[in-house]
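testing teh design pipeline on a random one, pls ignore if ur not involved
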């Protein structure tokens, strides 16, 4: 009888031990799971609207190679994005379609030191709806009676609008062009208006024209008529995930990214 009691006691103790250690094992797994989840971070990329297609493709490849990183995009006009950053909007990396907006942030000490580089170059082109019968012999024809309405980026905050005004000024047709202008909030809105035939013409980047089957390019901006279309990139001082932000900014300069950018028509510096 005593032996049976001893056996039962031993069995009870062993079972209790299994429950305790098994429970610890479960708790350990939960802790590890929580740790893994905590290690996954999100980085926020504020980028010019003209980069939408290329960056989404590049970001998709980056996330496959780095499963613990999730990339969130905020595409828009460079001026609007810079203003959002100044006001404290979450952003780890900024890519502008012109140096001006990056310079503005730099002057306010909002860029992380030694992270700014000139990443890409682009071209300004005149586009029309695919079925348009309109023909232009030169940029100056925009001022003629052939053209009734033209879509432009809003020059205060949209770089393509600023480049457009530089071109018109150099050709002495600014006043006539502005009289026909409908101003868009970013370059992709310009593209959309032309695609829908809401305007006769639009000024966009060559890369925007390349992603649309509903428009055709009539002319490229004359050489020397505007400043070079440079896209600078920088990590922001306010970045919550500085290490990951720097890693993504570096990836934008890698060979894999260069191939994607060039596929969309960008020139990589």
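output:
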């Amino acid at each position: 009888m005593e032996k049976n009691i001893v056996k039962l006691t031993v069995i009870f103790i062993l079972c209790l031990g299994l429950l305790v250690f098994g429970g610890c094992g479960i708790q350990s797994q939960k802790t590890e799971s929580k740790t893994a989840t905590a290690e996954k971070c999100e980085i926020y990329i504020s980028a010019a609207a003209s980069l939408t297609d290329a960056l989404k493709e590049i970001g998709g490849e980056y996330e496959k190679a780095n499963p613990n990183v999730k990339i969130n995009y905020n595409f828009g006009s460079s001026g609007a994005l810079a203003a959002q950053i100044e006001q404290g909007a979450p952003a780890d990396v900024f890519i502008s379609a012109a140096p001006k907006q990056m310079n503005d942030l730099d002057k306010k000490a909002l860029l992380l030191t030694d992270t700014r580089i000139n990443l890409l170059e682009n071209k300004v082109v005149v586009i029309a709806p695919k079925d348009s019968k309109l023909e232009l012999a030169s940029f100056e024809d925009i001022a003629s009676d052939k053209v009734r309405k033209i879509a432009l980026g809003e020059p205060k905050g949209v770089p393509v609008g600023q480049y457009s005004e530089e071109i018109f000024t150099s050709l002495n047709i600014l006043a006539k062009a502005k009289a026909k202008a409908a101003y868009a909030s970013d370059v992709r809105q310009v593209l959309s208006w032309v695609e829908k035939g809401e305007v006769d013409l639009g000024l966009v980047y060559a890369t925007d024209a390349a992603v649309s089957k509903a428009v055709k390019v009539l002319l490229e901006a004359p050489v020397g008529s505007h400043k070079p279309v440079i896209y600078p990139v920088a990590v922001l001082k306010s970045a919550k995930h500085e290490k990951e932000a720097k890693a993504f900014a570096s990836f934008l300069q890698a060979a894999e990214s260069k191939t994607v950018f060039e596929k969309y028509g960008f020139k990589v510096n």
